[in-house]
């Protein structure tokens, strides 16, 4: 009799685990940016950022990054060429591919021309090189699609990294 009571008790406890009505929400914080509630299925910030995306009329179903500049890709990602080269005209608008914070804006490396590096959530970085004018400075927050620079006379060059590792930008651009 005691065995039957124990089995019934254990069964009730186990079934209640599967039918719990209220679950507490999990809050995930990206320590690199301090952003909360990251939806890892879409790599997007939920709640407040979704409202901002709606305001800017960006499709929330696809969270892929924008192409940084209008132009034909003339050289793709490889071991020797860790980014994309675009055939562009002088003074075309260069746009941020995702929301983030500018961590570098300048031209210390003369061979890359004027460069902007933006830090995005989840350890992603994007680099925009061979620009004529820079419209953002280090420390500025930028939004997806915001004009950050204009192209120069050389072909525009774009790179993406996940932490320190170069990644193929084509996989993330729409």
Whole-angstrom Rg: 23 Å
Portion of residues in helices?
10-25%
Low-confidence stretches: 37-62
**Helical region count?**
2
**How many strands?**
14
Characterize the largest beta sheet: strand count, sense, and whether it forms a barrel.
10 strands, antiparallel
Task: Indicate the proportion of strand residues.
Answer: 25-35%
Q: Mean pLDDT score, rounded?
A: 78
What is the straight-line distance between the termini?
Answer: 66 Å
Question: What gross morphology would you assign?
Answer: elongated
What structural category arises from helix and sheet content? Answer: alpha+beta
N to C succession of SSEs: HEEEEHEEEEEEEEEE
Q: Could you explain the architecture of this structure?
A:
- It is a single chain.
- Strand 8 and strand 9 form a beta hairpin.
- The strands form 3 sheets. Strands 5, 6, 7, 8, 9, 10, 11, 12, 13 and 14 form a 10-stranded antiparallel β-sheet that branches.
- By secondary structure, this protein is α+β, with helices and mostly antiparallel strands.
- The longest helix is centred in the N-terminal third of the chain and has 17 residues.
């Amino acid at each position: 009799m005691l065995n039957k009571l124990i089995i019934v008790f254990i069964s009730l406890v186990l079934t209640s685990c599967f039918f719990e009505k209220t679950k507490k929400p999990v809050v995930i914080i990206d320590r690199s940016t301090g952003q909360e509630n990251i939806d890892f299925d879409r790599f997007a910030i939920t709640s407040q950022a979704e409202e901002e995306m709606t305001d800017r009329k960006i499709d929330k179903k696809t969270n892929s990054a924008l192409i940084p500049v209008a132009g034909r890709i003339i050289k793709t990602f490889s071991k020797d060429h860790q980014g994309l080269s675009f055939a562009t005209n002088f003074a075309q608008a260069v746009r941020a591919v995702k929301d983030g914070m500018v961590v570098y804006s300048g031209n210390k490396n003369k061979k890359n021309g004027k460069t902007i590096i933006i830090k995005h959530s989840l350890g992603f970085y994007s680099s925009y090189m061979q620009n004529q004018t820079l419209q953002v400075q280090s420390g500025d927050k930028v939004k997806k699609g915001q004009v950050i620079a204009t192209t120069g006379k050389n072909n525009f060059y774009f790179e993406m990294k996940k932490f320190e590792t170069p990644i193929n930008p084509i996989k993330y651009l729409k």
